[in-house]
Design a protein that fits this description.
This protein is of the alpha/beta class. The chain has a single domain, classed as Flavodoxin domain (Rossmann fold). Helices cover about 40% and strands about 20% of the residues. It is built from seven helices and five strands. It has helices at about 15-30, 65-75, 90-100, 105-110, 130-140, 160, 165-175; strands at about 1-5, 35-40, 75-85, 115-120, 145-150. Strands 2-1-3-4-5 form a five-stranded parallel beta sheet, with helices on both faces. Strand 4, helix 5 and strand 5 form a beta-alpha-beta unit. The longest helix has 15 residues, at about 15-30. The structure holds flavin mononucleotide. Flavin mononucleotide (FMN) binds near residues 9 and 119.
């Protein structure tokens, strides 16, 4: 299976990437191929809402999102990876999801698999309520097949994350696909 990770943290050595890396190792050990995009390093502009694409067609913005589009449409699974920012996903990840607008039907027609990897400082049991609800709604709307969520509570720094159970859980999620 071809897997695309949309990695939405600006910290390349941060907690989100620790989970993304563990997930990749697990998936690759199981024979899958994984491509990770560090979205913060790419030139991807927000959707202008012009709808020149007609919700399925060429986008008027010519930027790095074309690479994401090609990779997503050539893949079997999308992994959304993000730090929790004000109880939602990072702007870097949301920007790329908004740009799905120009190839929405192509995504839904594929019935792709998906997963969510997320980290947060907070460790209350409600920490991920809003993000989880948003992700589940995306799964429903985009006709995705959810393979699981790793919601790293109390993962406020790379050290906290490395010493938590979540990298192992991310590895197992990738390995069990
Ligand atoms: C702009 C910003 C907003 C944040 N919002 C939240 C939040 O709402 N809840 C929370 O628990 N942690 C929040 N955090 C903490 C991060 O989610 C946490 O430190 C995470 O480990 C960062 O991941 P990274 O190392 O991949 O960047 C926020 C951090 C930043 C920089």
């Amino acid at each position: 299976m071809k897997i695309v990770i949309l990695q939405g943290s600006p910290n390349k050595k941060g907690s989100t990437n620790i989970l993304a890396e563990s997930f990749s190792q697990g998936a690759e050990a199981a024979g899958h191929s994984v491509v990770r995009f560090d979205l913060a390093e790419m030139n991807i502009r927000p959707c202008t809402g012009c709808v020149a694409c007609g919700y399925e067609g060429p986008c008027v913005l010519h930027d790095d999102n074309q690479k994401i589009r090609e990779a997503v449409l050539g893949a079997d699974m999308i992994v959304f990876a993000t730090p929790l920012y004000y109880y939602g996903m990072s702007a870097q990840l949301k920007t790329v999801i908004d740009r799905f607008c120009a190839y929405n039907s192509s995504i839904t027609a594929k019935h792709m698999k998906s997963a969510l990897l997320a980290v947060a400082w907070n460790s209350d049991n409600w920490t991920f309520d809003a993000l989880e609800s948003h992700y589940r709604t995306q799964v429903r709307y985009l006709d995705l097949q959810d393979q699981g969520m790793i919601l790293g509570r109390g993962c406020g720094t790379p050290s906290m994350t490395k010493h938590s159970k979540y990298p192992d859980l991310a590895y197992k999620l990738g390995n069990q696909l």
